[in-house]
Amino acid sequence: MHEQQKTARHGSVRDGLRQIRKSDTLRTVIIIVFVISILGLNLSTLTPILANYVLNALAGAFGLLCAATGVGSVAAATMMASRSRFGVGGLLSVGVDTLSKV
Q1: Residue 55 · residue 61 · CB < 8 Å
Q2: Phi and psi (nearest 5°) for 66?
Q3: Rounded CA separation 85/69 (Å)
Q4: 76 close to 94: Cβ distance less than 8 angstroms
Q5: What is the largest CA-CA distance in the chain?
Q6: Which residues of 83-98 are buried (b: 16+ CB within 10 A; e: fewer)?
Q7: 71 near 98, Cβ under 8 Å?
Q8: How many CB atoms lie under 10 A from the CB of residue 20?
C-alpha cells in the first residue's frame, strides 16, 4: 500500500472519531450499540450451551430458544416503529427491552 493511501485512511478514521466526539447524539448511539453488542452477542454463542447443559434439553428446545429470540426482535422492532419520537431515553429503553425479551 502506498504511503498516501495509508495517510488518507488514517485521516479518515481521525475525522470520524472527531465527529463522534463532537456530536452528543452520535456518541450516545455508538455507546448504546457497543453495550448492546457486548451483551447481546454472547447470547447467540451461549444459547446451545444453555439448552444442553442448563435445561438438559435437545435440539427442539434449542430451536424454541432461537425462535424466542426472533419473536423478541420482531416485538422490539414493532415497538420502535410505533413510537413517533425517540430521545436518548427512548433508545435506551428499546435496547434494554430488546435484551430482556431475548
Answers
A1: yes
A2: -65, -40
A3: 25
A4: yes
A5: 58
A6: eeeeeeeebbebbeeb
A7: no
A8: 14
pLDDT of residue 92: 65
Cell matching residue 32: 448504546
Show the cell assigned to 16: 470520524
Give the pTM: 0.43
59-89 tens-digit pLDDT: 888 888 888 888 887 887 787 777 666 665 6
Q: Are 102 and 68 in contact (CB under 8 A)?
A: yes
Alpha carbon distance 52, 50 (integer Å): 6
Place of cell 450451551: 49
pLDDT, averaged across the chain: 76
Other beta carbons less than 10 A from residue 32's beta carbon = 16
Q: CA–CA separation, 88 vs 37, rounded Å?
A: 17
